[in-house]
Amino acid sequence: MTTSPPDQPLAKGVHDYVDDPRNDDVLISVNGALVPRAQAVVSVFDSGFVLGDGVWEGLRVVDGGICFLDAHLDRLYEGAHALKIDIGLSRDELTARLFDCLDANGMTDGVHVRLMVTRGVKRTPYQDPRVTIGKATVVAIPEYKSPAPEVAARGLKLFTVHIRRTGPAEQDQKLNSHSKLNCILACIQATEAGADEALMLDDAGAVATCNSTHFFIVRKGEVWTSDGLYCLGGITRSNVIRLCGDAGVPIREKRFSLVDVYGAEEAFVTGTFAGLVPVREVDGRVIGRAPDDGDRAGPVTRRLRELYKQFARREAARPARGA
């Protein structure tokens, strides 16, 4: 069974999950080879290990399909192209590899997949891409993971950290790269403050995003999220924006401040793993009123959460074998 030091929880906050012993025996796809979890390794000279040089996606498996697969592959290939990484597989070939791994494990639902692509093995541990030898490293780690139900019940506690999100002039947040030190430092500060997740600002002090999720507030019936310049191009974020439009819920992508957050009626975060998760508190300020039914989400959050669940199930894609 997956273990952790006795004083360390397996997960925290929005990514808290129900531990599943089946994960001990899953097969991991390492460059196309299906390898038992305990034996799944890459070289110490791999670009991802040496430098965090790579891109990745988190994928959700529902009813035998992968939710929003095309959008995730778009982002993966766009990021690889920006970094001049040749994945070495067509989209169809990579998709087939993902489903070969899922099929080998008999996985059809309640599964989260971490798909990772690095530049590959280096001749020596140095940043220059020209010392890379061989092909890109492509790894898919599927795990049975379901969000812990108590997270939605209690809601998240956020803390605004001093670590700022970088803009396009620094490390462009549109790159879903393996280099996550900016977010890790924010996560550490939030954890030390007793929070579940870090709320991060842009270089002017406007609200940008969280360290591992996207952030939304509800004010007077309108849903607000950042203008997107300082955050990853989130798949769930974009789908929630789309669902607001389809459902007639006013949605605004704009710059706003912490004062706007503190006075919001509702707040929630979004991500591939847990979907929409309510926020109960930001920097010691309680957000909205707590319902008395054991679910911290407010009415707008609840409506969008249900719409998103239905949409994700409809959009879970599984290509025909041999296509």
The number of helices is 8
How much strand?
Answer: 25-35%
Label the overall shape: globular
- The run of helices and strands is EEHEEHHEEEEHEHEEEEHEHEEEHE
Helix fraction bin: 25-40%
Structural summary, described in words:
This protein is an alpha+beta fold and 323 residues long. Helices cover 27% and strands 26% of the residues. The protein is built from 8 helices and 18 strands. The strands form 3 sheets. Strands 9, 10, 11, 12, 13, 14, 15, 16 and 17 form a 9-stranded mixed sheet that branches. It is globular and about 55 Å long. The N terminus is likely disordered.
Write the layout of secondary structure elements.
Elements: E1 27-30, E2 33-36, H1 47-51, E3 54-62, E4 65-67, H2 69-82, H3 91-105, E5 111-118, E6 121-122, E7 132-133, E8 137-144, H4 149-154, E9 156-160, H5 181-192, E10 197-201, E11 207-210, E12 214-219, E13 222-225, H6 235-247, E14 251-253, H7 258-262, E15 266-271, E16 275-282, E17 285-286, H8 299-314, E18 316-317
Parallel strand pairs: 9-10, 9-16, 13-14
Antiparallel strand pairs: 1-2, 1-8, 3-4, 3-5, 4-18, 5-8, 6-7, 10-11, 12-13, 12-15, 15-16, 16-17
